[in-house]
Design brief:
By secondary structure, this protein is α/β, with parallel strands linked by helices. It has helices at residues 16-20, 34-45, 62-72, 93-106, 117-121, 123-129, 141-148, 179-182, 232-235, 245-259, 275-288, 300-303, 308-316, 331-336, 344-356, 374-387, 404-412, 440-455, 458-468, 470-480; strands at 7-11, 50-54, 76-81, 112-116, 134-136, 159-163, 166-169, 213-216, 219-220, 241-242, 263-266, 293-298, 321-327, 360-367, 393-396. It folds into two domains: 7-162, Response regulator (Rossmann fold); 198-397 and 432-489, Alpha-Beta Barrel (TIM Barrel), CATH 3.20.20. The chain is globular. The model has no long low-confidence stretch (mean pLDDT 92).
């Protein structure tokens, strides 16, 4: 790693145990910090010297991270605040805040920036609460380039800064218009590629190669407005921008041929959405003869009507897993979160169509959405049991900073977590939203009951063994033997 670079991009560590409790030992993933690598590639292309310090992957505590930074002696330090759990970056802010304090104690003269989803969602609060000198709101590419180029801070779009204990900011920065042309490079070579670990459910067929893993975006943004989602906090808009299929295939060539990657997680909010985008990628993978195990996001109303031949092509290319936001078994509750353009029949048809070509699901279900009561939450659990996805994810509704639910929670003075770890759905301090009918404790208790009911179901375990083998069944049973402790439930 070079010394005295223009900037070091830091992926903070230290919260894995707090976020996932004992599940962190084996069952959670160690995700690739794609946004840091993308930013590094952009800045490197502008002629700057860039390093990445992935403290999370290297399992560095704050003291070790600060020592590494002191040895590197960068001109700027930027902590990149993106999480591997969808768009919920709040839990990592505890580690980020601790690291900020340590850096300013030991390296007070080095300018320290924060960038990412959470700082973009709450820029003023983040500037007040954290020991940072500056903050980047938005995508940050041009903002960081201008800063490193010596442009006066008052002239830099997207930048927040402090002066004499006062907070200032410039106008918002424009988003990247042409992703392939303006963001051509991902600095995979600056990452410790042997240190990443795939989600355990992606490897139910074979656990031996979990570390041959990487995550990637092939598009940015989403045109929809689900009230529980905060993805637009960074982008400030509701639309999708795509990298070209050629760009995506070039990144896959690097990952497969240089780093031996087999498991690919595509972070796009909507990968299976535009066939002009995903079909050339799938066909290019098949042309190359790559043996990949890929997970990607899809929508119910897209799978409900997609050409079945497209699903067959995706499956042949290695798209063995889809993530599907089913959310709830109640059409009434779905309408409450702006996701009411399809019904339960469409959900069943979408799942059946994907299952018919051999695809499996890591389907998302959510408890405690606005209007939920015990009856509607039981409907959601019943739907999960009926659909029998290979690995459902059971969440509770949260007021994620940047989401409409967060704004509503503030307006209604609903109780919110007093620590950012309260947004970690598998953490001890977790505090989701209450509903009109249920307390937050009742929502958490039902979520944990649903998890046990599903994953300990003999019919489910038999299905897993028949499909993936005895080792997969053993893995699931070992996972369910770990009981999450909950402060809200008096543990």
């Amino acid at each position: 790693m070079m010394t005295n670079p223009d900037i070091v991009l830091v992926n903070a560590g230290g919260t894995r145990k707090q976020v996932y409790q004992d599940l962190s030992k084996v069952f959670s993933a160690i995700d690739t910090p794609f946004w840091a690598a993308l930013t590094a590639g952009y800045l490197r292309g502008k002629g700057f010297d860039v390093n990445i310090l992935d403290a999370n992957a290297l399992n560095l505590d704050p003291d070790e991270t600060v020592k590494a930074l002191a040895d590197i002696r960068p001109k700027f330090i930027a902590i990149v605040c993106y999480s591997q759990q969808a768009n919920v970056s709040a839990p990592i802010m505890v580690a980020v805040g601790d690291l900020c304090r340590r850096i300013k104690e030991e390296l007070p003269e080095t300018p320290l920036l924060l960038t990412g989803w959470h700082p973009s969602a709450l820029p003023e609060r983040t500037m007040r609460e954290e020991a940072c000198d500056m903050l980047v709101q938005g995508e940050g590419f041009q903002t960081l380039s201008d800063l490193l180029s010596g442009v006066p801070v008052s002239d830099i779009r997207g930048l927040w800064w402090k002066k004499d204990s006062r907070i200032f900011h410039g106008p918002p920065a424009e988003n990247i218009k042409d992703l392939s042309a303006e963001l051509p490079d991902v600095a995979w070579d600056l990452l410790p590629m042997d240190n990443y670990r795939a989600f355990s459910w992606m490897c139910l067929r074979d656990f031996s190669e979990r570390t041959k893993f990487a995550s990637i975006f092939t598009s940015l943004g989403c045109p929809f407005r689900c009230s529980f989602c905060a993805i637009h906090a960074t982008y400030g808009e509701h639309r999708i921008r795509y990298w070209s299929p050629e760009w995506v295939l070039r990144q896959l060539d690097i990952l497969v041929n240089q780093y031996g990657v087999r498991h690919i997680n595509i972070h796009d909010e909507l990968f299976v959405f535009n066939p002009k985008h995903y079909l050339p990628i799938a066909e290019g993978i098949m042309d190359r003869g790559y043996d990949l195990n890929i997970n990607a996001f899809a929508r119910v109303d897209v799978l409900d009507r997609v050409d079945i031949r497209h699903l067959e092509t995706l499956k042949k290319a290695g798209f063995h897993w889809l993530k599907l936001g089913i959310e709830t078994g109640s059409s009434r509750i779905r309408a409450n979160v702006n996701k009411d353009n399809y019904g339960i029949d469409a959900v069943r048809n979408a799942v059946n169509r994907a299952h018919s070509v051999g695809m499996d699901f890591c389907a998302n279900f959510m408890f405690g959405l606005p209007g939920d009561d015990y009856g509607s939450m039981q409907d959601t659990l019943n739907l999960a049991l009926d659909l029998m996805p290979a690995f459902p994810s059971f969440f509770c509704a949260m007021a994620i900073p940047g989401s409409d639910l967060y704004t509503e929670a503030l307006e209604k003075n609903l109780p919110l977590p007093d620590t950012w770890l309260g947004y970690a759905s598998q953490g001890y301090d977790f505090l989701p939203l209450p509903t009109e009918h249920l307390t937050a404790a009742q929502v958490v208790e039902f979520r944990d009951y649903a998890f046990d009911t599903y994953f300990k179901n003999p019919g489910y375990l038999t299905t897993i063994e028949n499909k993936f083998g005895r080792e997969a069944r053993k893995h699931i049973k070992e996972m369910t033997a770990i009981r999450l402790k909950r402060k809200i439930l008096g543990d």
